[in-house]
Write a structure and sequence with these properties.
With about 325 residues, the protein is an alpha+beta fold. Helices cover about 45% and strands about 30% of the residues. The protein has 3 domains: about 110 residues, Elongation Factor Tu (Ef-tu), domain 3; about 55 residues, RNA polymerase II/Efflux pump adaptor protein, barrel-sandwich hybrid domain (OB fold (Dihydrolipoamide Acetyltransferase, E2P), Beta Barrel); about 120 residues, no CATH class. The strands form 2 sheets. Strands 1-8-12-10-9-13 form a 6-stranded antiparallel beta barrel. It has a 4-stranded antiparallel beta sheet with strand order 5-4-2-7.
């Protein structure tokens, strides 16, 4: 009987020990809750050039797609410049083509005819000078004056110079344009083409386009206003990705790591959670921002956590306060 009582006591002690061991060794599952605000990337969208706004095509609150035209500038003066630049490009292209094609056969024939005409004039001038000189010598200056002879000498010199000039022109026509002239004409053409391309780019920039899938937060200018690169026309909020900026206390920092799942709840839909994942954890501690209300003390050190979410229905809005839960996280 005594042995039975001792065995019962030992069994009771063993059972109590096992319960205590299980209680202190098993993990306790609790739900970690954080509080934060929805954040999005924002864009101050402005024109590149300075000009008067002709059209505003979108209203505040509108959802816009990448590449969608939101506004346009006046382009009348710019189109006039493009027309002038196109004419200059055509002129430069024609000049380059003329040099590349070289001298036409008709032009060479014309140059040869000019040489023949100059040679004939030289022969006539030589005969005229010889006749006047002979008369002047045979008459001892009585039939003709020295001035008459000098004039025929001058005409002969002019005829000889003209023949040399025409011969050189024929030579240039037969050789064709210089390589340097062709290179220069090509450079002029490229310069004018680049100027035309720049003007056409400016014409394309006269349309203000959405850079991404976003929502128009504010419409800052109206038709008739003068837009400049320093004056934004729209303020856009990029719709994807969105994230929740929350803060975790230092004592809970070890339970959060990048990639773990989280559920985001709003005050409007407290029972409808939006699934996300932790994508960023700050490595620097800071004090709790005043905009975040938690049960922790304000002076407690916290770390910023970003929970990235997909929100195709656009439930989450910029700055909206939300609650972030990490279901059944081991503590």
């Amino acid at each position: 009987m005594q042995k039975a009582k001792k065995l019962l006591v030992l069994l009771l002690l063993a059972g109590v020990g096992f319960v205590v061991w299980r209680y202190f060794s098993a993990p306790i599952f609790e739900e970690l809750v954080l509080y934060g605000n929805v954040d999005q990337r924002q864009v101050a969208l402005a024109f590149i050039d300075s000009e008067r706004i002709a059209e505003i095509l979108i209203q505040e609150g509108a959802e816009v797609q990448p590449g969608q035209v939101l506004a346009r500038l006046e382009t009348r003066r710019l189109r006039d410049k493009i027309a002038v630049a196109e004419a200059q490009v055509a002129s430069a292209a024609a000049a380059l083509a003329r040099l590349n094609n070289g001298t036409r056969p008709e032009e060479i024939d014309q140059a040869r005819a000019a040489v023949a005409s100059a040679r004939a004039e030289q022969i006539f001038a030589e005969a005229q000078y010889k006749r006047y000189d002979d008369i002047w010598k045979s008459s001892n200056g009585q039939a003709l004056s020295k001035q008459d002879v000098d004039e025929t000498q001058l005409q002969l010199d002019i005829a000889r110079a003209k023949l040399v000039e025409q011969q050189k022109r024929l030579r240039l026509a037969e050789i064709g344009p210089r390589d340097e002239d062709i290179a220069e004409a090509g450079a002029v053409l490229r310069e004018r083409q680049r100027s035309l391309e720049e003007l056409r780019n400016r014409l394309d920039d006269a349309e203000l386009k959405s850079p991404a899938h976003s929502m128009v937060n504010r419409r800052l200018l109206e038709p008739g206003d003068v837009a400049t690169p320093q004056r934004a026309v729209f303020s856009l909020a990029i719709l994807s990705p969105k994230w929740v900026r929350a803060y975790v206390a230092e004592t809970n920092l070890g339970y959060i790591r990048p990639g773990i799942a989280a559920v985001v709840f709003t005050d409007s839909y407290p029972e409808r959670g939006i699934v996300g994942t932790v994508g960023f954890i700050s490595s620097v501690a800071e004090f709790t921002p005043k905009a975040v209300e938690t049960t922790e003390l304000r002076t407690s050190l916290v770390y910023e956590v970003r929970v990235y979410v997909e929100d195709p229905e656009n439930v989450l809005r910029l700055g909206m306060p939300v609650t972030v839960k990490f279901p059944e996280m081991a503590r």
